[in-house]
Specification:
- The protein is an alpha/beta fold and 281 residues long.
- It contains ten helices and 13 strands.
- It has a five-stranded mixed beta sheet with strand order 10-9-11-8-12, sandwiched between helices. Strands 5-1-6 form a three-stranded parallel beta sheet. A three-stranded antiparallel beta sheet has the order 2-3-4.
- The radius of gyration is 26 Å and the shape is globular.
- The protein binds arginine (ARG).
- Arginine binds next to strand 2.
């Protein structure tokens, strides 16, 4: 009896070994390029699988940018937060928010610590080297905020003036003339972690102007309309998109689907419009 069992066992072992071998042969008979594509794809799907298994997806943002992302008590609000919630919903998971300095948001995605970044991020060539971008979802400009009685009337007047920007933003790039394309040069730049601190310094007379994205600029002016104003001329034309780790096409596809659905249904516009009237802080 024992002998029969042993025989049976070894037969099973030989059979399964054979199965393993034939599998291996099958895989290695693939051409190299097909094999590597298959590997990449499974790595990407693995990201989505991990997200689903963990039950949450991680957003990197900087919640100092009303109306796109800002703190609301213990939670977060804003246009990007609403879009991010839809992305989480699509995957059937919770949204976890990593609220970090704006100039570290891209690195957070690159290192895989966050699954995506939504932070009113302007698409530019420099950033495209480090992350992949979704379809764009908002048209923006850099605006100039000055004191109500300022002698600065047009962007050219900023030359030789002390201007506050949020560190690492396109407003910072423009004012420092980092890429050599700025129309206004010779600006004395003061960098801040939070836009609100720059606006406070402007109101207190420590700055001549603040350069920041137009919608947040509008919010700052609405809150302090007796003290500050926005110039009607803007400095740049920009577009916002969501960033993912380079090559994470599975994540990108989910995000683009959500953006398309929100655009097509009119929901994105409804969300944007609803924040026209919300004023927090
Ligand atoms: N659009 C600008 C940029 O991409 C500023 C974005 C700042 N966003 C933020 N959440 N603080 O550089």
């Amino acid at each position: 009896m024992k002998k029969i069992a042993a025989l049976f066992l070894s037969a099973v072992m030989v059979l399964s070994l054979g199965a393993c071998q034939s599998k291996t042969t099958e895989a290695s008979s693939n051409t190299d390029s097909t094999a590597s594509t298959a590997n990449e794809q499974s790595a990407e799907t693995a990201t989505l699988d991990t997200i689903k298994a963990d039950g949450y997806i991680t957003l990197a943002t900087n919640a100092e940018f009303e109306p796109f992302e800002f703190k609301d008590g213990d939670g977060y609000m804003g246009i990007d937060i609403e879009i991010s919630k839809k992305i989480a919903e699509k995957l059937g998971v919770e949204l976890q928010v990593h609220d970090i300095a704006f100039d570290t948001v891209i690195a957070e995605v690159q290192s895989g610590k966050a699954n995506f970044a939504a932070a009113g991020i302007t698409v530019n060539e420099d950033r495209k080297k480090n992350v992949d971008f979704s379809e764009t979802y908002f048209n923006a400009n850099q605006s100039v905020i000055v004191l109500a009685d300022s002698e600065i009337k047009v962007p050219a007047d900023l030359s030789g003036k002390k201007v506050g920007v949020q560190q690492g933003t396109t407003g910072d790039v423009y004012c420092t003339n980092e890429d050599g394309t700025s129309e206004v040069t010779n600006i004395e730049v003061q960098r801040y972690n939070k836009g609100v601190d720059a606006v406070t310094d402007l109101i207190n007379g420590r700055l001549d102007a603040v350069v920041i994205d137009d919608f947040p600029a509008t919010k700052f002016v609405e809150k302090n309309s007796d003290k500050i104003q926005k110039l009607s001329d803007t400095l740049t034309v920009e577009e916002y998109a969501i960033a993912v780790k380079k090559g994470d096409t599975a994540m990108l596809q989910v995000i683009n689907e959500v953006l398309k659905e929100m655009k097509d249904s009119g929901e994105l516009q409804t969300v944007i419009d609803s924040y026209e009237n919300v004023l927090v802080g």
